[in-house]
Amino acid sequence: MKQMTERVNQILEEVKNFQGDAEQFRLKYLSRKGVLSELFEELKRIPADQKKEAGRQLNILKQTAEQHYEQLKALAENQPAATEIPDLTLPPVRHTTGNLHPLTLTRLRIIEIFERLGFSVADGPEIEDDWHNFTALNFPENHPAREMQDTFFIKKNRDAQGRNRDVLLRTHTSNVQIRLLEQRKPPVRAIMPGRVYRNEAISARAHCFFHQVEGLYIDYNVGFADLKQTLYHFAKEMFGQETQIRLRPSFFPFTEPSAEIDISCLICKGKGCAVCKHTGWVEIAGAGMVHPNVLRNCDVDPEEFTGFAFGMGIERVTMLKYRIGDLRLFSENDVRFLRQFHTVIS
Ligand code: DAH
Questions:
Q1: What is the pTM of this model?
Q2: What's the topology of domain 102-338?
Q3: In this predicted structure, what is the pLDDT of residue 310?
Q4: Interhelix angle for 48-78 vs 35-45, to 10°?
Q5: Any atom of ligand 1 within 6 Å of the Cβ of 65
C-alpha cells in the first residue's frame, strides 16, 4: 500500500509538470494502455482492507489528470496554428501616406501650365541685397515704393562711395528677374516660384511670409498682347475655361506700362459676392512691360529686346481655387486642414 501511495504522489507531480500537448498527455496517462489504467489494474491486486484508501487516492489522481487534459485542450484551441491562413477577404490595413501641401499643389500646377508654353523654371536667393531686390528693378533711392514693401532688413549698410549695400529678406520674387538676366542673355522665358517676406501684422489676409511666382519673357518684339494672352491662357487653365481676365492700369517701378490682373470671381461667376467684395473680380497678379532701365541694368539693350513680367501670389491663387478663407491655415500645419488635400490631384 505504501508503495502505491508513493507512486500516486509521484505521478501526481508528473502530471502537474507535464510538458507537451494534449494528445501526448492523453496517450501517456489516460489511454487504455496509459499509466492510470496500469494503476487501476494494480488496484485489483491490493489486499482488500487497503483497497478503499488506495482507490480514493487513485480517483484523486484520475480527476487531476482529466482536469489537466481539459486545460491542455483549451490552450491548444485558443492558439491559432502556425500554418493558419489569414482571412484574405478582410479589408486591407490602411497605410496613411502623406500628401502634398496645397501651396505645393498650386505651385506644381502653375509650373505645368507655363512649361507647356515654353517657360523654364528658375530659382533665386531669399536673402538678398538691395541691388537685386530694389535698385536694379528701378526703385529710386528714397522712393516711397521701397517703404511700401515693409522690408525685413538683415543689415543696413553703405559702402565707401555711399552706395546702398543693405542685406534683406527679399520682398518679392522679382529679384530673380535680375539674377536670371545676369546669367543668361535673351531670349529668356522663365517662371520663378519662391518664398517672400514682408514685415506685416499676421491676419487672415496678410502674413509675414508668403509665396509668389514671377514670370519673365524677353525676346525680339514681345508686346503687351503677348502678356495679355499668356495670362488669359493661364487663368483658363488654372480656374476653368469660362474664366475671364481684366487688366487695370497700375504702377510698379520695374514695368511700364503696368497693370493689375484680375480674374472673374469663381465663386459668384462675376455676379458679386463677399469674396470679390461685390465687384465680380479678384486680383491675382501684378504685371507689365519690363522697364527699359531694368533691361539696361542687366546689360540688355532695350532697343533690341522687349519683354513682359508678372508676379502672382501663390496663396491668393490657392485660396481662390480651393475656397480657403484664412491665409494663416497655410503655415499652421494643422493636419485636419492639410488632410483635406489628400485626394486632390493636381
Ligand atoms: N513684385 C510685385 C509685388 O510683389 C509684383 C509684380 C508686379 C511683379 C509687376 C512683376 C510685375 O514682375 O511685372 O507686388
A1: 0.73
A2: BirA Bifunctional Protein; domain 2 (3.30.930)
A3: 98
A4: 170
A5: no
CA 215/CA 120 separation, integer angstroms: 10
Q: Is the pLDDT of residue 345 over 80?
A: no
Helices then strands, each counted (H, E), the chain = 13, 10
pLDDT reported for residue 1 = 66
SS3 34: coil
| 93: DSSP letter | P
CB 211, CB 231: distance < 8 Å: no
Atom 2 of ligand 1: nearest residue by CA position:
311
Per the structure block, which three cell numbers stand in for 208? 509675414
State the cell numbers at 84.
493558419
Domains of the chain by residue range: 2-78, 102-338
Q: What Å distances lie between residue 66 and 22, 29, 43, CA to CA?
A: 11, 9, 19
- Residue 155's nearest CA partner among 124, 125, 186, 127 is 127
Arithmetic mean of pLDDT, 182-186: 95
Q: Ligand 1 pocket, 252 CB below 6 A? A: yes
